[in-house]
Inverse folding.
């Protein structure tokens, strides 16, 4: 379980998060939505310890990661996988090396065992026969799939998705959304998704958290979000700046 | 106007001290990663290939022609154009000492600073701005251990080897010019070099090479990790790495010369 308590974060004079608090229960998928620059990604990065909040606490299974030393933070991070907006694949490595890197670093599995695991995870995200390809040879959708395979390789308890459908055509965006749904259900993963894509948000989220100007302005189910008559939410939902 | 000049000088000094601080912190973290490197020797070997083996063609060309031109220029001065005429019997000794002590380590260092220091900063800088460094962090892999330490170690090991290679080729270049264009016999050239040869000169060149190799890799990594601002930022980091690494080599060449001789 992840508990976020009164997180505040500033960059210079710009206050990005102004006191965010909410919980993510085990097995749940929480979708974080909000306008560009409202602090969604900073919140996501804070949850995995890539950003340190100025104040507040982030408890991962009872451990406050804001005060952990590097060694303990890495221990906690092994419970996580993260899919980045641009996939962030290592362009000096092959696909097999990208996906298998964490296994080489953190397990004593043999090269063949690692290859078998990599093949299995890549197949689970719908990719076959691409082990020796370079990341530059992949399309945007394939990169996201490889990124997801890399995020899943250590059998994480939590997976964070940063704009998983951004930059993809509508069909590929739906494919990736379905894949995330299928994967999180199959492995019973607790996931947090940051997105602008309302179709994806409605399809994925057990719960939707909306952030505006560094604060939570809505927290509830997808159907509550759809039914909300709050002007800002209606505007965001319809994509109409005049609503 | 005077205030601006002093502000500029003050800013430059502050930047320089900040850089030294950043390099020192990174060096300390790299030092702590020794155990990791022992478990992952393949990472060092990969970088030894990149920093050492792939620098061989450029180092070879530079050292061959440096040797050749030093022989030609020394002969020009020995002929008494500048001062009293000296015997060509000393040409081999003079050129050899200059190659071993100064030319090979410094020019090889500058070549590596341009080829490797800049490329390390560009590679790590690109990884930084495309979130690949963050991706390593999320996989619980320390980017300093995984990226900086193997490069530092490879620079530390490979630059002395490149300098030994450069020493041989620079001697070959110098001898070729002496023999083919200055009509100095093989016996005269190498006899002179051998009579005045000091093993200390070779070691001093190698000590310089170790410092230059480790320093160049350290500077490239440190600047790469602090890259921001997309493609423009990567470009700036690349230039900065080359400038700082070159300045580091020339300043430390002077400091080491004071200490060693």
């Amino acid at each position: 379980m992840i508990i976020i308590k009164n997180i505040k974060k500033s960059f210079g004079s710009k206050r990005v998060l102004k006191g965010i608090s909410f919980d993510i229960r085990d097995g749940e998928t929480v979708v974080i939505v909000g306008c560009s620059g409202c602090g969604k990604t900073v919140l996501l990065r804070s949850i995995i310890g890539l950003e340190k909040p100025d104040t507040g606490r982030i408890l991962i299974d009872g451990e406050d990661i804001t005060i952990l030393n590097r060694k303990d933070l890495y221990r906690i991070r092994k419970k996580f996988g993260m899919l980045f907006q641009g996939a962030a694949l290592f362009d000096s490595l092959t696909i097999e090396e990208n996906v298998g890197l964490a296994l080489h670093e953190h397990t004593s599995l043999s090269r063949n065992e690692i290859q078998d695991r990599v093949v299995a995870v890549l197949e689970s995200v719908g990719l076959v026969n691409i082990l020796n390809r370079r990341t530059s040879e992949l399309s945007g959708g394939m990169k996201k799939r490889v990124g997801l395979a890399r995020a899943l390789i250590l059998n994480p308890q939590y997976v964070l998705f940063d704009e998983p459908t951004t930059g993809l055509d509508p069909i590929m965006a739906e494919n990736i959304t379905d894949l995330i749904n299928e994967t999180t259900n199959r492995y019973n993963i607790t996931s947090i998704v940051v997105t602008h894509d309302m179709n994806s948000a409605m399809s994925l989220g057990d719960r939707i958290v909306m952030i505006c100007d560094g604060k939570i302005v809505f927290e509830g189910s997808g159907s509550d979000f759809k039914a909300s008559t709050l002007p800002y939410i209606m505007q965001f939902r319809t994509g109409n700046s005049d609503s | 106007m005077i205030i601006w000049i002093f502000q500029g000088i003050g800013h430059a000094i502050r930047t320089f001290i900040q850089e030294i601080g950043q390099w020192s912190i990174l060096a300390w973290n790299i030092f702590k990663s020794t155990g990791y490197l022992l478990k992952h020797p393949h990472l060092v070997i990969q970088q030894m290939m990149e920093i050492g083996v792939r620098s061989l063609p450029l180092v070879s060309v530079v050292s061959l022609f440096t040797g050749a031109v030093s022989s030609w220029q020394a002969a020009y001065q020995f002929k008494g154009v500048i001062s009293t005429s000296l015997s060509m019997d000393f040409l081999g000794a003079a050129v050899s000492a200059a190659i071993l002590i100064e030319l090979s380590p410094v020019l090889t260092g500058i070549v590596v600073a341009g080829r490797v220091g800049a490329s390390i900063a560009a590679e790590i800088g690109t990884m930084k701005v495309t979130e690949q460094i963050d991706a390593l962090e999320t996989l619980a892999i320390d980017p300093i251990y995984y990226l900086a330490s193997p490069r530092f170690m490879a620079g530390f090991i490979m630059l002395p080897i490149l300098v030994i290679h450069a020493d041989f080729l620079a001697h070959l270049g110098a001898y070729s010019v002496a023999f083919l264009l200055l009509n100095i016999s093989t016996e005269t050239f190498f006899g002179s070099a051998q009579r005045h040869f000091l093993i200390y000169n070779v070691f001093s060149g190698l000590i310089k090479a170790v410092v230059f190799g480790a320093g160049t890799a350290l500077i490239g990594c440190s600047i790469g990790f602090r890259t921001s601002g997309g493609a423009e930022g990567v470009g700036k980091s690349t230039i900065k790495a080359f400038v700082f690494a070159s300045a580091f080599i020339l300043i430390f060449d002077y400091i080491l010369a004071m200490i060693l001789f």
Observations:
- DSSP finds ten helices and no strands in chain B.
